[in-house]
Design brief:
Distance between the termini: 50 Å
Helix content: 10-25%
Number of helices: 12
Number of strands: 19
Structural class: alpha+beta
Radius of gyration: 32 Å
């Protein structure tokens, strides 16, 4: 471990301590997880579920295990570093996330889960603390309780933090499926809207009662084989509680979000959509126009052949009013010399150099070619030839009067 310099502790879990560290060879920041358990033999490490799971998965929304180091019977996992987790973001929020942000986070969770389930594993401990976030990138972490789908039951009863634990686990079912992960997704989705847990039970019995209080009593077909149904029946007795409206509990969620949460939080695990089906839900089918990023004009790279990047503006169907033909344009370029007049402060409030073409003729179908320049006290910079082409057509005939209203401001790069 001499290669890694521990900087500070990030957390202390049931399985080990997590530190922020620096790789002294590459100076990369990493996360180091030191397991509390001692390992006398290397074979013990290779049989760890977390190692088995992470070795088989490679996905942008699943934390990457970079290296495993064994030293003095201690085991260290070296992970890629993430700035924080979803729990911290929720805790720090003063107002709810926008639905667009929630959609972004949950889409990444579901893509990671889809990959995980297809690789034959389910997480069993999904909660906001185990969803690491850097900027807008989310990665699923902490696979200490991960289990292979093909593994034989009975499974461990104590899985997942209580608030995100599926009913079949609370009812002590010996066999359950990746649907337990989908229940946790529904609980996390609801929490992102309200910033508070949906089922904050203080014990397993209280947890089961909180689920029952919101979702109502399930029918008998909802219980999985081997579940301790009497545990719920003894809890509720003969009292019949109708399900609450999730839209009343989560008033800031859209109807699509409420519908998805309702499906994910089904008593019957077979009725919960899987990760791929959830991604096809209308909640994620939003037709949002994303504009293409505009390139920074200061980053224009002219080739040695002195390329001439041109900007062509076509002005058509303007009205007879001179004000209908008004255009202001700012370009940050280093232009070359041109046969242009330079006018200072041509319009009130405009303090840049304004360039005009002086040989424009009145014509109903006319193309005008300008070469932009930025004069200084000693002359004109001519390191590049950057041109602006304007084509006019089908406009009013009185162009000679309206062209004076078109001005261009140029800055030196």
């Amino acid at each position: 471990m001499e290669r890694y310099k521990l900087l500070r502790e990030l957390g202390d879990g049931s399985c080990g301590h997590v530190y922020k560290a620096r790789d002294m060879r590459t100076y990369e920041i990493v996360a180091v997880k030191r397991l509390k358990r001692k390992f006398c033999f290397w074979e013990e490490y290779t049989n760890l579920r977390e190692v088995k799971a992470l070795r088989k998965m490679n996905h942008p929304n699943i934390i990457k295990l970079k290296e495993v180091v064994k030293e003095n019977n201690e085991l260290f996992f070296i992970f890629e570093y993430m700035d924080g987790n979803l729990y911290q973001l929720i805790k720090e929020r003063e107002k709810p996330f926008s639905e667009e942000v929630i959609r972004c986070f949950m889409s990444q969770v579901l893509h990671g889960l889809s990959h995980m389930h297809k690789k034959g594993f389910f997480h069993r401990d999904l909660k906001p603390e185990n969803l690491l976030v850097t900027n807008d990138v989310l990665k699923i972490a902490d696979f200490g309780l991960a289990r292979e789908v093909s593994s034989m039951p009975p499974y461990t009863q104590y899985v997942s933090t209580r608030w995100y634990r599926a009913p079949e686990v609370l009812l002590q079912s010996p066999c359950y499926t990746p649907a337990v992960d989908m229940w946790a997704v529904g609980a996390i989705l609801a929490e992102l809207f309200t910033l508070t847990p949906l089922f904050p039970g203080e014990s397993e019995i209280d947890q089961l009662y909180k689920v029952y209080s919101i979702l109502g009593m399930p029918d008998s077909t909802a219980f999985t084989i081997g579940a301790n149904n009497s545990r719920l029946l003894d809890l509720v007795g003969h009292e019949v509680v109708p399900p609450m409206k999730l839209s009343d509990i989560i008033p800031n969620a859209s109807l699509e979000a409420i519908d998805l949460i309702t499906q994910l939080l089904s008593w019957d695990p077979s009725r919960r959509p899987d990760a791929d089906q959830s991604l096809q839900h209308p909640f994620f089918q939003v037709d949002a126009w994303v504009p293409c990023p505009l390139s920074d004009p200061l980053e224009l790279k002219l080739s040695s052949k002195r390329a001439k990047p041109n900007l062509e503006l076509k002005l058509q169907d303007f009205g007879p009013d001179p004000d209908d033909c008004f255009l202001g344009l700012t370009l940050a370029v280093k232009p070359s010399v041109s046969n242009l007049d330079v006018v200072q402060n041509v319009s009130q409030g405009v303090g840049e150099n304004v360039l005009f073409c002086t040989d424009f003729n009145d014509n109903s179908d006319q193309s005008v070619f300008w070469t932009l320049l930025n004069p200084d006290q000693n002359g004109v910079h001519n390191s590049a030839e950057t041109s602006l082409s304007l084509s006019f057509g089908s406009a009013s005939a009185n162009w000679s009067s309206t062209i004076s209203r078109i001005f261009f401001s140029a800055f030196a790069a």
